[in-house]
Design a protein that fits this description.
This protein is α/β, with parallel strands linked by helices. 35% of the residues lie in helices and 20% in strands. The longest helix has 22 residues, at 80-101. The structure holds (2S,3R,4R)-2,3,4,5-tetrahydroxy-N-oxo-pentanamide (EZ4) and cobalt (II) ion.
């Protein structure tokens, strides 16, 4: 089999998505996601200008060789744009492989290790009472694991909370909006939120929380310790992780499990975190971490150190990534949990898919390949619209991590 054609589709059914379609001489095609929130056009251009010309004529079964060609062959290694582009190619090729062999991708990655994928939902509210209502609503929908975020008294805007009545979407159209931040006000508030959640909902529910890279290691150690009585499933992204040894400080102060890595793009972002057992869950996922070929190696390495996966699954990861992630989650042994932030109905219509949710679990479906398609004529009705993630400032105006 040979790759005969490939092209990038950009669509915005509620938010922007970059999708790579690879076609072959046997009439089989594959899809890969290359969406990088707020930087979508860079990946599209990287693919169109620099990657697609190099893959035409190659055998789509050679996923390892093509991955190495695009990674080592570029000379310039790693980085979110490069790795999202490589991921788009890799995932599309595994989709082709599955379709050609007439089997779901999970069978090519080890077969079924479980019958369903534990997913967590997002509950949020402008204050604790509204957050509690949203937890109740998600519990009612069948979720067994729920991430809880709430507005912080004294701060006008907070990560994870919808500004208006609609659902929460991190990217906003137009130029970046500005949020405000105070670690002091936040730290005063979070343990009150979780004390209430446990009081109202008891011990059964798995609870998660995302600090979204805003604390210093010692602040994160304090928060983890304060949250211990409420036994969280995890505390996410407590501190930026470029300095991996910062996590040693967190680990020394708390037994609250730590998840990190939604912004990682290769195992080298997590090597020290894993081999020193400073984290419990790796969040680097397929679209930003180089696809199945690299993530399988990263997950196998993590497995040696008792680190499990907890893939990022926000709305900026397209249904192609969600399908791919569910195949991966089904097959690997050290799966932990999968994030689920439902897409808009418009997005689900543009990407018809086989995966489904029932009683707190998801399944990828048994269609050959990934079981997701792109309705290109519908996609054309939603042209690209510039959108950015917000930026964050401390109360004195200093720019900080969002
Ligand atoms: O802010 O996906 O855990 N989920 C998250 C997300 C991220 C966005 C960034 O593109 O932190 O909401
Ligand atoms: Co996060």
């Amino acid at each position: 089999m040979k790759i005969t054609n490939a092209y990038v589709n950009i669509t915005s059914p509620g938010r922007n998505f970059v999708t790579l379609k690879i076609e072959t001489d046997e009439g089989i095609h594959g899809l890969g996601d290359g969406t990088l929130n707020g930087r979508e056009l860079s990946v599209a251009s990287y693919l169109t200008e620099h990657v697609i010309p190099c893959i035409i004529g190659r055998d789509p079964f050679q996923t390892e060789d093509i991955w190495q060609y695009l990674y080592r062959g570029a000379y310039w290694r790693r980085g979110p744009v490069t790795m999202a582009a490589i991921a788009a190619v890799d995932v599309a090729l595994w989709d082709i492989k599955g379709k050609a062999l007439n089997t779901p991708v999970y069978n090519l990655l080890g077969g079924k290790s479980r019958e369903g994928i534990l997913v967590y939902a997002h509950a949020n509210g402008k204050d604790i009472d509204h957050a509690l209502e949203d937890v109740a609503r998600h519990k009612e929908m069948g979720f067994k694991a729920i991430r809880v975020q709430s507005g912080i008294p004294g701060l006008a805007t907070t990560y994870g909370i919808s500004k208006g009545p609609g659902r929460y979407e991190p990217a906003e159209r137009g130029l970046p909006s500005e949020y405000e931040w105070s670690s002091e006000l936040y730290l005063r508030h979070v343990s009150k939120l979780f004390a209430q959640v446990r009081e109202v909902f008891g011990d059964e529910l798995h609870l998660l929380h995302d600090c979204h890279h805003r604390l210093t290691p010692i602040e994160a150690g304090r928060l983890g310790k304060e949250l211990e009585p409420f036994h969280l499933f995890w505390m996410e992204d407590p501190t930026p992780a470029e300095l991996q040894e910062g996590y040693k400080i967190i680990r020394e102060h708390t037994t609250t499990p730590i998840a990190v890595g939604e912004v990682f793009n290769s195992i080298w972002d997590a090597h020290d975190l894993i081999r020193n057992q400073w984290i419990d869950y790796l969040r680097m996922t397929l679209v930003h971490g180089g696809g199945f070929t690299h993530l399988k190696k990263a997950a196998d390495f993590a497995d040696l150190y008792h680190v499990r996966t907890g893939f990022h699954g926000a709305t900026d990861l397209s249904p192609v990534t969600m399908a791919a992630a569910l195949h991966f989650d089904t097959a690997i042994h050290n799966f932990g949990i999968q994030e689920l932030m439902p897409h808009t109905d418009e997005t689900d219509a543009v990407f018809p898919h086989q995966y489904s949710f029932k009683d707190g679990l998801m399944v990828p479906g048994d269609a050959p390949g990934l079981g997701v398609e792109l309705d290109e004529s519908l996609a054309a009705k939603y042209p690209y619209q510039r959108a950015y993630l917000p930026v964050n400032r401390k109360l004195d105006g200093t720019l900080t991590d969002w």
